[in-house]
Amino acid sequence: MRNTAKITTAVLAAGALTLGLGACGSDKDSGSGSAAADTSGPLVVAASPVPHAEILTFVKDNLAKDAGLDLEVKEFTDYVTPNTATEDGSVGANYFQNQPYLDDFNKKNGTHVVPVVTVHLEPLGLYSHKFKSVEALKNGATVAVPNDTVNEARALKLLAANGLITLKDGAGNSATPADISENPKNLKFKELEAAQTPRSLDDVDAAVINGNYAIEADLKPSKDALVLESATDNPYGNFLAVKEGNEDDPRVKKLAKLLTSPEVKKFIEDKYAGSVIASF
To answer: Using an 8 Å Cβ cutoff, are 132 and 179 in contact?
Structure first.
């Protein structure tokens, strides 16, 4: 059994973006809002359940003690709270995101979260319960895509790379369906919160799903995806992150070293069999 404090978070209301709101009221009330500054206590890390919390739990159970690291893992099911909690000090670090997403989040929310070390890549994939190949997708098919800025653009780039659509010149990390210049199959797009995309598979013709949510839904990206992102020169590696100024926290340095150790690389390779790829 994993020794983690599990926090179930739904899609947050706009008020949850207020930086004064902690990830967990009881944590803030008990004084853990200073977790990032108090280097004498455990390092509390916010993480998505799969694979991030699983990787951290492997470190906690197998490597942390010998390295002199007291590690606590807190699970979150959304892509907002880990950053706001890191910003306000409710947690000391987080592990769930990539650079384009963090850049967009910091810009929109005035946060100051920075990467420490890149650990792995979760290839984004296109999945379907109704079709066995991208060629078989029917004219007018509905495709679910994540609705956050960076992952929606990433999803559209995946579709474009596989000939389903063409994006306008200059469409970057904020691309939306409005940036599609050619759509030969007349695909329709259903924009959903990223965590909801696996659950949409019975209601849509296909869905572009983030790797962590695919794995949580018992999909095997390396086998089940109709198409999958290439790992070559991929900018979407997931990293350990902290609030700016906490990069030299000795606990963070210990964790960064452990997360990029041969033991963690072997764990990723053995457990995820190509559905998660070590980036070091």
So the answer is: no
Please check the confidence at residue 110 and state whether its pLDDT lies above 80: yes
Beta bridge partners of 277: 121
Q: Give the number of C-alpha atoms closer than 13 A to the C-alpha of residue 121, restricted to the C-beta side.
A: 18
The pLDDT-based confidence of 189 (bands split at 50, 70, 90) is: very high
Cα separation, 45 vs 14, in Å, equals 24
Q: Which residues contact 150 (CB under 8 A, 6 or more apart)?
A: 98, 100, 101, 104, 173, 174
Residue with tokens 């906690």: 60
pLDDT of the residue at 37: 57
Q: Between β-strands 206-209 and 277-278, what pairing exists: parallel, antiparallel or unpaired?
A: unpaired
Q: How many Å apart are CA 233 and CA 238, to the nearest integer?
A: 14
Q: Above 70 in pLDDT, residue 67?
A: yes
Residue 203's CB: how many other CB atoms inside 10 A?
12
